[in-house]
């Protein structure tokens, strides 16, 4: 079953994290079994505390959704040991027309080289000019010849070397064996056999023949091997007894990792002449091979988005995924899909509220700790129902989840929002804990929100925040940068901003005091801050 990633937006808040986790759990419980909750950024302190309180591990961290080598239906041919015979490699190549090359591995499974039909053919042609074989393991030779050793001298031999020659009758004027460095191939030719044994050639291959008792008793250092094959076939097989390591390509190899992105792979392949490329895992071990046709129609990652539907807030590489669905409570933005998808967008204060209602619709009660976690997400995103985005549905669902989870709403709300915002945290860490980019009518802006119970003390760090905002504004090319210090007790938001003061004054109907001002009753970035700027810029 294909894996489906459920992910919220970048710089995820608690609602984004929990809606992904709860929706993945719902789909798995319904029998899908392939759904995995994911996140696109680091957990903020609030989310960490909530997950730890209810005993959950953070979702999988994903930084990019571009198609990778691991997403391809790549080939998985056998990987051969570098010590195997060329004959074994050639058998695999000729019996599998779809395989253009076979990976050759070291003993630990790491890549040694690649064996292709061209390697075998090139070696075969070279043997015509150079009929010498060197240090062929005896085991290899016996294997390819389906042979057996006939004498005691052969029992002391581990490797065989020499020039491969055919035995000729005694009547020939050519003296065949003028030294020992030969591998003689002959049939039922007693005179040639005697000549070879008396010359102490390195190895004698008897083809479709037996050794007479008289010849067997001759003193010789020759290793005698019997084979059922014809002399011509045996001679060719001797050359194929050498280890694959000696003829396969083992240098200047172009390899890919499972984690390599398809865009990068295509660029490398376009500049390469090879037809087949080995694929390695994180440990450098061979897992398969990749050919050009694998790049034509890749299998894409499957994704469901929660708590957003805006490309700038989503995962890099979203244009390369197969989008299956969106569950959200924000305005409609710019994400497009190639095919019809499941889309659910409702006017509630939390995406988790929508997922909780889906549990009801499917007749599935969440577990006690999942219900408590979902309740915390709703309280967080609705700011304990004080946000203008909060609806009666959010409260009703939260109360039901609280009963299932055995928790007290008031106590849980205090737990979420009375936690220290971290005197030990840098201004940058605080500012980017809940942060979103926006593009509105040609204007680029970044809006960060810190929900707290003491915005006055947070304002004491204004200069720190402004310094970080100035850096971010330059790095990202923003027109305006806004930091919201949303105070749960004051039920309003302190605004720190950088950018055109006239635009800010006109959008919010205020007279800023330097770079700050207070907006009573403003608790929501989505429903109160962004719409004001959208109305200003059209």
Tell me what the structure shows.
Helices cover 35% and strands 22% of the residues. With 538 residues, it is α/β, with parallel strands linked by helices. Among the domains are: 4-67 and 301-417, Alpha-Beta Complex (inorganic pyrophosphatase (n-terminal core)); 427-537, Diaminopimelate Epimerase, Chain A, domain 1 (Roll). The strands form 5 sheets. A 6-stranded parallel beta sheet has the order 3-2-1-16-17-18. It has a 6-stranded mixed beta sheet with strand order 7-9-10-11-12-8, with helices on both faces. Strands 19-20-21-22-23 form a 5-stranded mixed beta sheet. β11 (203-207), α8 and β12 (223-227) form a beta-alpha-beta unit. The longest helix has 16 residues, at 14-29. The two termini are 46 Å apart. The mean pLDDT is 90.
Percent of residues in helical segments? 25-40%
The top-level CATH class of the domain at 4-67 and 301-417 is Alpha Beta
- Mean pLDDT over the residues: 90
Cα Rg: 37 Å
Overall strand count = 23
Distance between the termini: 46 Å
Question: What strand order characterises the main sheet?
Answer: 3-2-1-16-17-18
């Amino acid at each position: 079953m294909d894996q489906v990633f459920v992910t919220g937006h970048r710089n995820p808040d608690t609602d984004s994290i929990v809606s992904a986790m709860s929706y993945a759990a719902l789909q798995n419980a319904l029998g899908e079994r392939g759904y995995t909750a994911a996140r696109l950024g680091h957990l903020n302190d609030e989310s960490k505390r909530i997950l730890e309180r209810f005993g959950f591990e953070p979702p999988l961290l994903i930084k990019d959704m571009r198609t990778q080598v691991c997403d391809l239906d790549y080939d998985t041919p056998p990987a051969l040991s570098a010590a195997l015979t060329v004959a074994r490699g050639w058998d695999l190549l000729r019996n599998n027309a779809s395989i253009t090359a076979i990976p050759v591995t070291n003993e630990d499974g790491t890549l040694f080289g690649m064996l292709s039909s061209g390697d075998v053919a090139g070696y075969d042609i070279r043997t015509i000019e150079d009929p010498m074989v060197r240090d062929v393991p005896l085991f290899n030779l016996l294997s390819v010849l389906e042979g057996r050793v006939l004498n005691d001298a052969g029992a002391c031999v581990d490797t065989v070397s020499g020039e491969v020659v055919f035995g000729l009758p005694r009547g020939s004027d050519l003296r065949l064996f003028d030294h020992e460095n030969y591998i003689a191939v002959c049939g039922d030719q007693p005179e040639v056999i005697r000549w070879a044994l008396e010359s102490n050639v390195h190895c004698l291959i008897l083809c479709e023949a037996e050794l007479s008792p008289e010849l067997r008793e001759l003193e010789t250092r020759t290793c005698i091997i019997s084979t059922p094959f014809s002399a011509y076939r045996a001679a060719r097989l001797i050359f194929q007894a050498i280890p694959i390591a000696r003829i396969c390509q083992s240098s200047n190899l172009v390899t890919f990792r499972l984690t390599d992105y398809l865009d990068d792979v295509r660029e490398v392949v376009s500049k390469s002449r090879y037809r087949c490329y080995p694929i390695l895992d994180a440990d450098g071990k061979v897992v398969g091979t990749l050919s050009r046709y694998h790049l034509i129609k890749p299998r894409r990652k499957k994704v469901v988005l929660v708590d957003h539907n805006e490309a700038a807030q989503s995962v890099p590489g979203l244009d390369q995924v197969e989008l299956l669905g969106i569950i959200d409570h924000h305005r409609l933005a710019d994400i497009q899909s190639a095919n019809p998808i499941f889309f659910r967008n409702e006017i509630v204060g939390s995406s988790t509220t929508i997922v909780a209602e889906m549990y009801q619709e499917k007749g599935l009660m969440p577990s006690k700790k999942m219900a408590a976690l979902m309740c915390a997400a709703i309280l967080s995103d609705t700011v304990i129902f004080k946000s203008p985005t909060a609806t009666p549905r959010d409260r009703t669902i939260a109360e039901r989840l609280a009963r299932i989870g055995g928790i007290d709403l008031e106590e849980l709300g205090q737990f979420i929002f009375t936690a220290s915002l971290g005197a030990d945290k840098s201004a940058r860490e605080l500012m980017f804990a809940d942060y979103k980019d926006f593009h509105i009518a040609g204007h680029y802006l970044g809006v960060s929100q810190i929900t707290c119970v003491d915005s006055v003390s947070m304002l004491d760090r204004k200069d720190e925040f402004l310094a970080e905002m100035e850096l971010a504004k330059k790095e990202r090319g923003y027109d305006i940068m806004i930091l919201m210090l949303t105070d749960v007790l004051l039920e309003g938001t302190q605004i720190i901003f950088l950018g055109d003061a006239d635009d800010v004054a006109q959008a919010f109907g205020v007279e800023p005091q330097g770079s700050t001002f207070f907006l009573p009753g403003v608790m929501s970035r989505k429903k109160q801050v962004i719409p004001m700027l959208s109305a200003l810029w059209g």
